[in-house]
Amino acid sequence: MKKKKIIYGQELIMDLYECDFKKISQKKYIQQYSNKLCRLIKMKKFGKALIPYFGFKKPHTKGYSLVQLIETSSIVGHFSESERSAYINIFSCKEFDPEIAKKFTREFFAAKRMKARFLTRR
Fold first, then answer.
1. Are the beta carbons of 26 and 33 closer than 8 angstroms?
2. 17 phi and psi, to 5 degrees?
3. Would you report the helix, strand and coil content of the chain in percent, each value rounded to 5?
4. Within 13 Å, how many C-alpha atoms sit on residue 112's CB side?
5. Residue 57: left (phi > 0), alpha (psi -120 to 50), or beta?
6. CB distance 86 to 77 below 8 Å
7. What sign for the dihedral angle of Cα 22, 26, 30, 36?
8. C-alpha dihedral over 8, 107, 15, 81, to 10 degrees?
C-alpha cells in the first residue's frame, strides 16, 4: 500500500517588473504591503517585519529586503531600485489563494509586468 503524500505547504513566487519606484524604495510602503497582504490572505504575523536597506556593492542589488515571519512560515521580498523590480515569495503551510495575492501584489507595486509560479511543497 502506497503512503499518501502529505502537502507540507504552498509557495507563490512573484517577479515584478517596471514597478512604481516610490513603492519599492520607501520602507513605509513595503511595511504597508506586508501588513495589507497578511490581512488579505489571512496570515497571522509572527513579530515585526524586518526591512533592511543594503546590497550596495552592485546597483541591481541595492535596495530594501523584507522578511515577515507568519505563524505558518514567511513572506520574503527583495526590491531592486535600479531595475525597478521586486521579487517576492510567500510560503505557508496554511492554504491561501494565490490569485488574490498575485492581483494585490501587482496592483500595490503598480508593476507593468509580472511572472508568477505557484508550487505545492511535499
1. no
2. -125, 155
3. 25, 40, 35
4. 7
5. alpha
6. yes
7. negative
8. -130
Q: Total structural domains in the chain?
A: 1
Question: Structural domain of residue 17, as residue ranges?
Answer: 9-121
Q: Is residue 40 part of a domain?
A: yes
1, part of any domain: no
Give the pLDDT of the chain (122 residues) as one tens digit per residue. 777 778 889 999 999 999 999 999 999 999 999 999 999 999 999 999 999 999 989 988 999 999 999 999 999 999 999 999 999 999 999 999 999 999 999 999 999 999 999 999 88
Q: Are 74 and 68 in contact (CB under 8 A)?
A: yes
Task: Determine the Cα–Cα distance for residues 1 and 23; give it in Å rounded to an integer.
Answer: 53
> Is residue 2 included in any domain, yes or no?
no
Q: Residue 83 falls within a domain, yes or no?
A: yes
